Each structure stands twice: as C-alpha cells, then as structure tokens.
C-alpha cells in the first residue's frame, strides 16, 4: 500500500488500488507520522464516512480540515467557515448560501452556455490541444469572475494565485512547495503560501473600496456580513476552491470521454445530460479528503480513535466503494440515484458551488457531444502532486470533428 501522507504517492493519479485494499482489509487504517506531522486515521468506506459526517460533535472540523498540524494561533488566523462546526458553521453558511442557491445559479445558464460554446469551439480549432488549458480551465475562471463580481482583467492573476495556494505541494504551481522549503514565515497565511499575502491584499482593497466589484457579485453581497480576516479567508477560499474543483471535474470528464470505450457515443445519444455531470464529478472527486479531529474516544472496527486524533474522510475512496456503487470504476452516465460524496456531499460542509459546477460541466458536455466525432489521448495526463486535491493538470488530446 502506498503511504497516503506522502504527496508523491499521488503524482501518477489517485492510488485507487491502495484505497481498494484499505476498504477490504483495513477500513480504519493508521498512518504513522510523516515529515514532522502527526499520524492519522483513515476512513475509506462509504458507510463509515457517511456516519462520521453526521456527528460533527464527535468528528470535528474545528481544528482544521487538512492533514497539516496547526497551532491554535495558526488555525484562528487561517480558518474559513469550512473549519468550523455547527452552530457557528450554520450561521455563516446561511449568510452566504443564498448567492449560490440553485435558483440563483440557474439564472447564469444562458451565459454559461454562451461561454461554453465559444470556449469549446475555439479549443477545437486545433486538431491536438491541451484540454485543461483550452477548455477545462477557462470556463470556471470566467464564471468565477461573474460570481465574485471582479473585473475580467484580474481573473488570470487571481486564478494563478489560487492555483499556487491550493497547489502548495506541487512545483507545477508554486516555487514555495510546502514540504520542500521553509514556509515558517507564511504560517499565518492560507496554506502557508506567499500567494495568500497577495490575495489578502486584493481582498483588503475590495473591503476599502479601492478595488471596484460589481453590485450583484458575492463579494459585494457579503461585505458587512463578513468582515476583516474572515472576509479575506473567505475570499481566498472562493478563489482557490471555486475554480479548481470545477476545472478538475471537467478535465476528468474529457479524460474519460477520450479513454473509456463507447462513452462519447453514449453521451451523444442525448439522454443522460442530467445525470452525467454527477457521474463525472463522482469519478473526479477533486477534494480527496477532509480531515476531522475526534473530540472523544470512539470505537470503530475493533480499534480506538482517541480524543485529539486526526481522522481523514477519504471522499475519493467512498466514491468508488463497490458496496455503494455498482461497477464503481467506470463512468455510467445514466447512474441514478448517484449519492456520491464528491464536493463533500452527505455532510454539513457540502460545497456551495456544487450547482454551478454541474451546470458548467453539463454545458461543456453538450458542446463536445454536438461537435466531436471522436476524442483520443495524445499523451498520458499529468496529475497534481497532492494528497488533498486531485486534478488533471495537462490533458493532451486529439479531436476528430463531425
């Protein structure tokens, strides 16, 4: 089995064989400390993770949601509402949730379809291209700007900083790789990243009114409800997670359409556009895990999780649990119901942008189905070096048009 604490275990993609073995033989698995961090428990079965998510009073988010150990001072400086439990989490969520509700997001559908049509058409002008750069990255970036209410000319800069932030373990995204260099001077910044300093400065400018944002964007809506450091951390969360998870879901869809026999032809029947986005998101599972911290001694699978122990909920494993999903490693576009755990579904921390991600993915799928006869890989994809975020970084493909 691969060491799940080691980011290098994920450079060739998710080690699904390791998770399958753990689900079978060690559903509660202990990983010893690694590179100065304390050890942790892993939950890998769908049923166990679902049960843990339902008791935040036992498995708490209020000491961080990543493997990294933090002092209380660091935690308080960097936390977002993701790193809180009910009722505090619920109060903040109620303040921001209306901007991401399904009826609100649905109003963006004409714009999303227009953008998807233009982006896909432009990408397909080249016979061979990197589908991440030309398609998967572009639509979420543009929609991020509309949701935040920031100027389009700032988007490339913001996304690059967001990539450096959430990709802090990968030299593809940052020179300040957290397990390779000394990041002590950034310990109060999100992800211990210098990109956090730059994003904080941008958020400060928004708060002061020096950076103009649109009146109907989320940043303007939450000013006055979220202030100071909480606003800056919320901004960093939106810039990073609001772009990457959708990008990697679209990239996984394009990767599977190019590699799974008959999948594109099945999509082109046009009967599964409502269910297909969830299936691709299930198989992408961009956020590999969230960490919880036990607040009391708990018995599971004949072992004792001690109060204070870190417990990782491996959503990526739950999404491929054969006890929850038939034929779990293949894309079944008509799969319904599809109660996967990608985007944190099943718990109080479900992703605010879930409806937007599904809408963006569906728009891209429909454009690909309309325009493309076949897709095929030109070279293997490259994957993020991270045990927290899984994504296809580059995806060279060849498209044959209708």
* The CATH class: Mainly Alpha
Number of domains: 1
Q: Spell out the helices and strands N to C.
A: HEEHEHHHHEHHHHHHHHEEEEHHEEEE
State the helical fraction: 40-55%
Please name the CATH architecture. Orthogonal Bundle
- What would you call the structural class? alpha+beta
How many strand elements? 12
Describe this protein's structure.
One of its GO terms (biological process) is cholesterol catabolic process. Its EC number is 1.14.15.14. This is Methyl-branched lipid omega-hydroxylase. Belongs to the cytochrome P450 family. Keywords: Oxidoreductase. By secondary structure, the chain is of the alpha+beta class. It has a single domain (7-401), classed as Cytochrome p450. The protein contains 16 helices and twelve strands. The protein has helices spanning 16-25, 46-53, 72-78, 88-96, 102-106, 109-123, 131-136, 138-148, 155-166, 194-208, 218-222, 228-259, 263-267, 276-284, 315-318, 354-371; strands spanning 28-31, 40-43, 59-60, 128-130, 289-294, 298-300, 303-305, 310-314, 372-377, 382-383, 392-394, 396-401. A five-stranded mixed beta sheet has the order 1-2-8-5-3. β1 (28-31) and β2 (40-43) form a beta hairpin. The longest helix is centred in the middle third of the chain and has 32 residues, at 228-259. It is globular, with a radius of gyration of 20 Å. The mean pLDDT is 94.
